[in-house]
Amino acid sequence: PPAVGGGGHRPAGTPRHPLAPPGRDPESPQPQAEVRVARIMATLADLPDSVLLEIFSYLPVRDRIRISRVCHRWKRLVDDRWLWRHVDLTLYTMRPKVMWHLLRRYMASRLHSLRMGGYLFSGSQAPQLSPALMRALGQKCPNLKRLCLHVADLSMVPITSLPCTLRTLELHSCEISMAWLLKEQDPTVLPLLECIVLDRVPAFRDEHLQGLTRFRALRSLVLGGTYRVTETGLDAGLQELSYLQRLEVLGCTLSADSTLLAISRHLRDVRKIRLTVRGLSAPGLSVLEGMPALESLCLLGPLITPEMPSPAEILSSCLAMPKLRVLELQGLGWEGQEAERILCRGLPHCMVIVRACPKESMDWW
């Protein structure tokens, strides 16, 4: 009989190895599939630079800097411009000295989007955002397009110190000076600003809304929790902001009906509307019928009023919006229900999205 070591079959009567899997001789050559699997096993060192950069981009800033000490290759990758396009500093209470080091060493001309906190609730000894830092951002970061400030005290920071390259400015739970957004201020400030987000900014009121006309490039406005804006102020403000193409009114004291009425009067070119359904009724929704440019409508719950339009009433109004392509309903509790099926069947030309309120994405930029 052929020898076992030569790759032949086991002679008849020879006992099987006790650990051998069924149908497999422990002394036979390794199958080709297992050889291929063994060859494709990779370590971090085997990954290309582009994959490592994608992995590193999910790390907090502090960890990015730490991994630069692992080896020369990782140090080179941490210095890569691509990795510092979007920076989130809201995770840290950062001393001014560290912030200045990051600005000079890593961000500079690479930076496109920056998210940072001002530590408004951390006590008087906590570092605050300064006019000098804002001016340095403008000077050292010529490609900075988006700035998101969280819980920051900006009452001593003039709006003229913000980088003039900004296209998006987001203020979340920030204190601002009363003079920041008044109409009488310099109209040449932030000449490229296209989008402004005002989320829980307590000082923002009617006269500030009218003062937004100074930003001639402005096309998107998001108001969240701006409780000092009145229905009269919103109507007067939108009359002067008739060129807006996107408007979001979320969690404000304004009723949805009054908001939609002001939109239908003054924003005939608006393309995207997003608002909470507090105070929404079928007649209030019907004022959007015939809006010539409206492409996307998003209604956010939760359902708290019996006047809320039924799915059939929402369908009827949407069919009268000639360019509507996206209808999104969030947090209404209709996902998987008959309401969703009615809307999907009745709006075959639209993308109908019915879902719970999503969690915040890590890709904030």
TrEMBL record:
Alphabetically ordered keywords of this record: Leucine-rich repeat, Repeat, Ubl conjugation pathway
Role according to the record: Substrate-recognition component of the SCF (SKP1-CUL1-F-box protein)-type E3 ubiquitin ligase complex. Mediates the polyubiquitination and proteasomal degradation of CAMK1 leading to disruption of cyclin D1/CDK4 complex assembly which results in G1 cell cycle arrest in lung epithelia.
Disordered: annotated segments: 1-31
Organism: Mustela putorius furo (European domestic ferret)
Subunit structure: Interacts with SKP1 and CUL1.
Compositional bias segments (type: Gly residues): 1-10
Pathway(s) this gene product operates in, as recorded in its UniProt entry: Protein modification; protein ubiquitination
Name this protein carries in UniProt: F-box/LRR-repeat protein 12
Record InterPro entries: F-box-like_dom_sf, F-box_dom, LRR_dom_sf
Pfam families: F-box-like
Residues covered by the F-box domain: 41-87
GO cellular component, one term: cytoplasm
